[in-house]
Structures are given as structure tokens and as C-alpha cells.
Amino acid sequence: MNIAVVGLSHRTAPVEVREKLSISDDHIKDSFSFLKANEQVIEVSILSTCNRLEIYALVKDQELGISAIKEFLTNHSGLNKEDLYPHLFNFNQAEAVNHLMRVSGGLDSLVLGEGQILSQVKKMVRLGQENQSLGPIFNRLLTQAVSTGKRVRSETNLGTGAVSISSAAVELAQLKLGQSMGKDQLITLESEDVAVIGAGRMSRLLLQHLYSKGCSKLTLLNRTLKRAESLASDFPEIDVNCGLLDDLDECLKSSTLIFTSTASDFPIITAERLRNCERNTVLRLIDIGVPRNISADVSDVNGFESHDVDDLQEVVARNQDARQKMALEAEALINEEAKTFLEWWASLEAVPIINRLRSGLEAIRKEELQKALSRMGPDFSARERKVVEALSKGIINKILHTPVTNLRAPQPSSQRKESIKLVESLFNLGISEKDS
Ligand code: NAP
Description:
The protein is α/β, with parallel strands linked by helices. It has helices spanning about 15-20, 30-35, 60-75, 80-85, 95-105, 115-130, 135-155, 165-180, 200-210, 225-235, 250-255, 270-275, 315-345, 350-375, 380-410, 415-425, and strands at about 1-10, 40-50, 50-60, 90, 195, 215-220, 240-245, 255-260, 285, 305. The protein has 16 helices and ten strands. α9 (about 200-210) links the parallel β5 (about 195) and β6. α5 (about 95-105) crosses α7, α5 (about 95-105) packs across α13 (about 315-345) and α8 (about 165-180) crosses α9 (about 200-210). About 35% of the residues are buried. The mean pLDDT is about 95. Bound molecules: NADP nicotinamide-adenine-dinucleotide phosphate (NAP). NADP nicotinamide-adenine-dinucleotide phosphate binds near residues 201, 203, 261 and 263.
């Protein structure tokens, strides 16, 4: 049995590949069914975010398990193996565990330490539970990944500062505005005519950061008006004009800066749409949707400047040095958490011998108790029988406590194997024909 992860992320694949792999909530159930049906897969979980798709699995055979997951990803994406495989990474066992802890801690994120990934790891746990794909190993692994993510945010400086893809998107807008004025610096957005398309979690963060960067008035369009109005009501300090996506063409004419962050599977702004839009000034579009909300062909249309999530690298790189230093603290914590999990995993090796030892002693206890009780005859009250039974159980548990603790304690595998052998021979616990 091995833990494996196969996937791709912003580090290994551009957005045009990532968006083909993204698994929407509508397709997640089928994906779990497909993976669980593979005979190599014992437990499995799926992490699907805008910047990564990762399949974590407990597999019978490392190589065959990884091939099965790659096969799933090929079918799901509709890409040829030649186009997909160069973008995939895979890790096994200790490396896979370490990778998951780093992801949860935000150390593998585009914006180091961003908080959304922790919610997405929590969602991965929920989806695994709902789809009955987690067993004892993954329940433990994923629970520990979530607590590691929390520890990174509460115990290290990496968690300080409200960093997210949305904050990077707002900074990119400021930087591009500055560059358009010949300055390599972030410029206030107070004079921009801003619009935000979408009213979900990322749009909420966009509004928060836009306000902090000088924006006091904006247009907010959404598929459903109620959600836009509800979001707007949480920002009374911003003058928000809410509307439906039907108003998008009007918005494309009147705005100077538009952010798109909807979960639409298809682009909502295309080259054709922009060609029909007459403008005198440049419109800057920043798309944080994955799959992209703005189609790639808009770069062919004059008068528009379009950026997608991969373009956020430019602003991220500017802040990276300081955050990298903070990340070092978090790395130490992550190594510690990964080690704890791997020690627990290694201790499972002792479980069969502990179970055999326990049931061997339990059989002796029951036999001896029965003998003693029958010797005492009918004069022995029910209460007295209970006391003697509890006494016998207590003695067995006390005797077992130290050897069980020692067998499960962190130690080199060779040492544990030696102890297991010793217990086996001293208590005559060799695998019987029935067990084998
Ligand atoms: P969310 O909270 O689920 O909100 C989804 C938004 O998309 C809602 O406004 C929803 O409108 C709208 N929407 C859904 N389907 C649509 C469709 N077919 N046509 C038009 N609008 C549609 O999602 P989110 O977390 O904010 O993510 C939004 C986008 O940002 C996604 O593409 C995601 O991949 C990307 N992103 C997310 C993160 C993250 O950490 N969460 C980070 C970076 C990028 P209704 O209100 O009408 O349902």
C-alpha cells in the first residue's frame, strides 16, 4: 500500500491546460465513482481549485495506481497523453504527504500563504466523506492536512496580511495603471471606472481590496441580482451599482477596469463581444476565473488589455522575497507535521501483532475467569462477579499497555520488526493457517 498524488498546478501547467482539467461540482460525483471503481485505488480524494487539480490516492501498487490516475486525467481532460503528461507531476509516500501539507499551508500557492487553499482542502475532506472514498488512512491524513494549514496561519508570520488571488489581481490592476503612465509602481484606483463580474467569494475579496486601494464606486454584475445586492450590502462604504449579466455590454463600454470572477464553464467575454463595443479609451480586463471567463482571442482586439490568473505572477514576484523568508518558518512546521503522520503510518505495521497479542490474552482471561467463577459456585453475587471480571480486564490492560506503547512508538522500521518478531516468538503468536 502506498500514498500517491498525481496532478498539475500553476507551477507545471498554463491556465489553458489547467482549465481543461478543472472538475466542477456537477462532475465530482462521477469522478469519484470512476476512481473508486479502479481495483488499484483503496482510498481517494480530489483537490480541484483554480490553480491545481490533484488526485490523492491510497493505492495497492505504486506504479499501477499512478497509471490508473493518469488514465483518469487523460479521459477527463479530453487531451492526448502527449499534450497532458508533460504537465503532470506525481509524488509517492513521504513526498506525497509533505506535498499535501505544503499545499494546505499555502506554501505551494501562487500567492504564498493565501488563505483560500485551506478552505479548498477542507472542501476536499467534505467531498471525500460525502462520496465515501475516505478510509482510516485518508481520514487521518486529510484531518492532519487541515490542522497543519491552520497551524501555519496561526503560528507563523506567513498567515499575516490578507493575501489572495483577488488581492494580487487588484495589485496587478494598480501596477498596469502605473506602467501605462510610465511608472513601475502601484497607483491608486480612485479615478478608475471599475466593474466586478460575479458575486461569489473571490468577488467579495475583490471588493475588500478595491476599497482599500481607493475605489469608492463600482458596478457589480451577477447572474442573479439578489446575490449581487447581498454582497453590496456588506460594503456600505462603497457606492455599488448592482446589475445582471445582461448589462455586460453596457459595462464594457463605460468601464475602464473590469474584474471577472465567475464560476462559468464558458467565457462570458469573447473577441466577438468586444468587437461590437465602441470605445475611445483602453479597457483593462483582469480575469481570475478558471476556466477563464475571458476567451484567449480577445488579445486580437485593439483597445483592450486583458490579463488572466497566470499574469498575476508579475505582481506576486515583486512581493515574493519577503514572503519566502516567512515561508521558511512554515516549512519547519510542515516537516514536523508530515513526520508525525508518517510515524503514525509506520506504527500501523504493529497493529496485526498487537491484535493477536490482545486476543490471545483475552482468551486466557476468559478461560481463567470462567474457571474461577464456577469454583465460587452460586453464592457469588452478580455484583461480585462484575468486580472480578473488571479486575481481570484491568490486569490484562495494564500488562498490555507498555508493550503496545513501545510497539507503536516512533522507531526505525528494523527495530520495530525485531520487536514484532520477539513478541511473536515469546507469546507463540506466529501466523496460524487460519490467519494466512
Ligand atoms: P463562488 O463563490 O462559487 O461564486 C461563483 C460566482 O460565479 C457566482 O457569482 C455565480 O453566480 C457565478 N456563476 C456561476 N456559474 C455561472 C455561469 N454559468 N454564468 C455566469 N455566472 C456564473 O466562486 P469563487 O470561489 O468566487 O470563484 C469564482 C472564480 O474564481 C472561479 O472561476 C474560480 O475558479 C476562480 N478562483 C477561485 C479562487 C478561490 O480561491 N476560491 C481563487 C482564484 C480563482 P450566482 O450568484 O448567480 O450563482
